[in-house]
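User: Could you write out the 3D structure of this protein bound to glyoxylic acid? I've included everything you need below.
Assistant: Certainly. Input first, then the structure.
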Amino acid sequence: MKKILVTRNLLEENEKRLLKLFDAKLNKEDVVLTTDQLIELSKDCDGILCVGGNKFDKEIIGKLSPSVKIIANYAVGYNNVDTNSAKARGIAVTNTPEVLTDSTADISILLLLGASRRAYEGRKAAEQQNWTWSTNLLLGKQMSNRKLGILGMGRIGRAVAQRAKGFGMEIHYHNRSKLSPDLEHGAIYHSDIKSLFAQSEFLSINCPATPDTINLLNEETIKYLPDGAVVANAARGDVINDDAMIKAMKSGKIFALGLDVYNGEPKINEEYLKLHNLFLLPHLGSATKVTRIGMGDRAIDNLEDFFSNKRPKDQVN
Ligand code: GLV
């Protein structure tokens, strides 16, 4: 049986299956392993099943035991793994696409609504029972029938578009390449950020973190958005420059922001916490039972394929 280091607990359903197929080295306390622990614990392993919070950069990959042949990432995003360094060392890297598309698109809509309809302030007022109904109590920005810009029109971006159509929104998007009409479903393509942002009364960030997208919302580009825009990020924290965003939220350029992901999470820029026009979640994009079981199954499928000498269907390097 191949030996697999499993860096965090999986749901019971996944763990049972994994234990039948592999000699799994579990982290029963479910603590976040340090880099040194990852290297040490995987010394006698053939593969690693890790989560997005485990970083495998060039240096760490260089220190892994030669016995490690696959890193199966339990996430669709794999910016935590240096795939080129892994490839150079003959290590396959896989992710878990598709199974989390719906749950993450749902969270994008929640972020857009939570931010635009002032859910954080609403919750606080309701809890404190000190509010009086009035015609101007916590007036939000109505999402229905407005323009939505989607940054990154992959599976998740397209699922956000599908949902937003139910709100009567006009969909605009930017992507590395224009989609075919059958995937576009009438969405309007913008080949550059400036032109997309100019239309984005609401903006949903659904792109992976790559050298092209890191810091994409910055002091300069935020200016391209209409005044009073609403932004939601369910992708990766580093797409947004926090200082520039905080400044824009303070000035009213940005009406409200919804965040599920953060630069250096679980840490958050302290300045954000002083703002009322922010709706926050702790990286819950894929956090439903059905999705998490799907992700576990997908990671296990990839390990199974790999050790049966098949190219895993989700291999990314
Ligand atoms: C979650 O952030 C994922 O990439 O799956």
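The chain has two domains: 3-99+289-307, 101-280.
User: Perfect, thank you.
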